Amino acid sequence: MQSREVRQEKTTKPLQVAGAVALLIVCLGLLSTVLSRNAANRDFISYWSSAKLLLAHQNPYAGQAVLQMENAAGSGYREPLLMRNPPWALFVVAPLGFFSASVAAFLWLLVLIVLALLAIKCLRLGLKPPPLVVYLFAPILGCAMAGQVSILLLAGIAFFFKYHQERPWLSGLALLMPAMKPHLFLLLWPVILIECVRRRNWRLLAGFGIGLAAAAMFPMLFDAHIWAHYLAAIRAEHIEGQYLANLSFLLRFMVPGHPVWVQGVPSMLGLALCARYYWRRRNQWNWRVDGAALLLVSTMVSPYSWPFDQLLMIPAIMHVCSVRQGRRWAPGLAVVNGVAVLLLLMTVPLSSPMYAWSATACLIWYVWARMKAGLAGVKEETRQLVTV
Questions:
Q1: Global model pTM greater than 0.90
Q2: Which of 25, 51, 81, 215 is the Cys-Cys partner for 96 at CB 3.0 to 4.6 Å?
Q3: What are the residue ranges spanned by the domains of the chain?
Q4: Cβ contact 192:171 at 8 Å
Q5: pLDDT in tens, 301-341
Q6: Distance in angstroms (rounded) separating the CA atoms of residues 79 and 67
Q7: What is the C-alpha to C-alpha distance for residues 61 and 52, in angstroms, rounded to an integer?
Q8: Do the Cβ atoms of 303 and 183 come closer than 8 Å?
């Protein structure tokens, strides 16, 4: 006689597949229409122009060349929209250079949506599918609309969380995706290294090291001075003078004179918090639970982040929602998410201060919902996580 869990799994799996396919079709229909008409005015265009220049053996970080390429595609920018990811990320966007801007925008969107669905599947805990708010999480929608790479980061870390023991080599390769924006994972990199050494998981480290070396050398086949060009472009961007709707920048903004070093204070406090939390949890460390919580805090304290990077909070949100009592509090997150979605529909720029509240609101919801969920020892774990 089949158990209740097996029967429930057989019932829910077709529904999940149907829901995922329906969501894919709807998103493609709506978003591809927007992107095909306005592909040149999205973050996507920076990846496409860099890919075009790279394949032409030119400097993909050259401001004027990028600006000409973007304006030729119909952007009308006065300043170039540069790809700020390190050169080892170019192997991901390089295929875009084989297509026109409109075709590449559609294919890129298709890849992002499929990876988002696969990431959510990897992060699922238990038999029940995640609540709808996870699929319609505002940072995911914003990331898809902008054509940003943050969904790739989520897919890479989701694969690592699920398969780091079963498939260590592939999990190491998957960490190449988070390495596209390494600053967002500042709290995770030390723990990943320590855990690999403690558990002698050399294959995972080898997979990441070899993959990163290959990805770093790939663009040098087209531009031998790619790293010098990248460093020069980043210095010329003066990122430290730009407004960012995140906790670190707001803290710096409140200090007289707005010194740049203040923007790194949350990260330093986060590292101290991480060390204490990991030390207490080291003998029972679970990446899908503890790693997800650490990733949420890491995203919060990053000195450089955008609202769509908040999709890295999804692993922690899905952990809470996977518990029966935790799902009761999903409507609270839906309200917060609904306001953020409304801002997106109103086409409020992602650089607007109106998005500054959303990450803090999600963190408050997570701590509150996790404590209310009644998980074993959750109050003590949460206290360890939010206190230094």
A1: no
A2: 51
A3: 4-386
A4: no
A5: 888 888 888 899 999 988 888 776 666 777 888 888 888 88
A6: 7
A7: 11
A8: yes
